[in-house]
Amino acid sequence: METPATYSGPYHADESMARELDAADPLRRFRERFHIPPRPDGTPTIYFCGHSLGLQPKAARALVEQELDAWANRGVEGHFRGKAPWYPYHENFRDMGARLVGGRPCEVVFMNSLTANLHLMLLTFYRPTRERFRILTDEPTFPSDRYALTSQLRHHGFDADGLLTIAAREGESTIRIEDIEELLDRRGHEIRVVVLNGVNFFTGQWFDMSRITAAAHRHGCIVGFDLAHAAGNVPLSLHDWGVDFAVWCTYKYLNCGPGAVGGCFVHERHGNDLGLPRLAGWWGNDPATRFRMHLEPDFVPRAGADGWQLSNPPILAMAPLFASLALFDEVGMPALRAKSACLTAYLQFLLDQLPPGRFEVLTPRDPRQRGAMLSILDHRHPKELVRLLVDEGVVCDFREPNVIRVAPMPLYNTFHEVWRFAQLLARRIGE
User: Fold this and answer.
1) Which letter does DSSP use for residue 4 in this model?
2) Which end of the chain, N or C, is less surrounded by CB atoms within 10 Å?
3) Strand partners of residue 110
4) Which segments of the chain have a pLDDT < 70?
């Protein structure tokens, strides 16, 4: 693993600062491991959209082709022969996945998609009663999560107003941890499950998951996290924090491709309870009896997160996981986090140099409360700004009504790209 870089300030706004930071960056060589989308003139874009879809590792193509070749040359025998036999394919990711989210290998499985995994977790852990049926989540809630949570309420015979949300105070953009604790103290007896973003998709706020888990457990709540914007972005210790379950996608920070297979964490205290209710499928069954179909037809879940699997893994969709997780293992989250914190601090510094009144950063200034993404509010002409950025080869995204989300990625973005982005904003103010 890489040794985390240390950066000492102060920053200054000259281009030479960006050049110096790039020259001292121990992770700069990893940029060459990715395909950077080109502009029409062939120059690379400034790709600040890894929070939406990560870039393709160059190693991914060969891994997918390896499985296509295995299918072509071995047919059904590919399940048990070849470089990466398909039958135990998902087991290849246990150790790397556990290191990524701070779990134990038995607690992590890659399967399905984020929302499908969220439903599977809620079918096990959301066991409401008339007195205790509410689900707590953060506001703004990612729409797919809201759909899943409210549909679970209705599935159990409750109205959508059973969804309880915690929002920022008036005039503030992020949620205070003490407000979450106060709400739990006041209404925890009504709440069955807490499902929060590890990092909020809109504001970029990184929640203190350990503190929230402890507060919720004091009131007997089950705690789950959507890690779509946290896995591969910030350090996690799900097992030690005592989180009950978590789900995440792999196409954002983890660079596994559009619609890539999702990840799921189930704490071992639950994974070892084979009597927990769940939806069953043959790949969650004990492998010792998985193929004794008509002889032993009863479902017997295997221990750990694997026991929530439904179907055999989609090999062609999972092959890029090898390329991505190997990179994360090679670099290590401490080194990734060190560069990420510096990238966002440098970007924040450059934004602070701009004339006041036009832009506002919604994301917390404290690096301990944010990941790689800054959400920038444009008070005047946000859509025009987005068009300008596109014309200048910057790829980021826009959220209504006036927020631009920008995420420099430590594996493939440079400090000079951050400086150039800030120069574009300064030019826009001057026009």
Assistant:
1) P
2) C
3) 263
4) 3, 5-9, 293-296, 430-431
Number of H helices, E strands in the chain: 13, 13
Instruction: State the number of CA atoms in the 13 A half-sphere of 414 facing the CB.
Output: 21
Residue 244 CA, distance from chain mean position: 17
pLDDT for the residue numbered 1: 73
7-59: per-residue pLDDT in tens? Answer: 666 899 999 999 999 999 999 999 999 999 999 999 999 999 999 999 999 99
User: Which two three-digit tokens encode residue 31?
Assistant: 């940029």
Angle, alpha carbons 393-398-426 (nearest 5°)? 55
User: Maximum CA pair distance of the chain?
Assistant: 76
Q: Which of 49, 61, 60, 55 is nearest to 34 (CA)?
A: 55
Q: Which of 3, 48, 51, 36 is nearest to 248 (CA)?
A: 51
Cα distance between residue 265 and residue 274, in whole Å:
16
- The separation between CA 31 and the C-alpha centre of its own chain, rounded to angstroms, equals 20
pLDDT, position 5:
66
* Tokens matching residue 273: 């309870």
Alpha helices for 202-332 (secondary structure H): 209-218, 238-241, 268-271, 315-331
Q: What is the pLDDT of residues 268-316, one digit of tens each?
A: 999 999 999 999 998 999 887 777 766 667 888 999 999 999 999 999 9
CATH number for the segment(s) 15-33+332-430: 3.90.1150.10
> CA–CA separation, 235 vs 227, rounded Å?
11
CA distances (Å), origin 205, targets 135, 189, 249, 376: 20, 27, 18, 13
Domain ranges of the chain: 15-33+332-430, 64-329
Q: Could you tell me which CATH number the domain at 64-329 has?
A: 3.40.640.10
35, 55 Cβ separation under 8 angstroms: yes
Compute φ and ψ for 55, nearest 5 degrees: -75, 160
What is the model's pLDDT at position 233?
98
The model carries a pTM of 0.95
Residue type, 111: M
Please give the Cα distance from 10 to 353 (Å, whole number).
Answer: 13
Give the SS3 label for residue 398: strand
Total Cβ atoms within 10 A of residue 56: 20
- Residue 131 amino acid letter: E
Cα(266)–Cα(246) distance, rounded to whole angstroms? Answer: 7
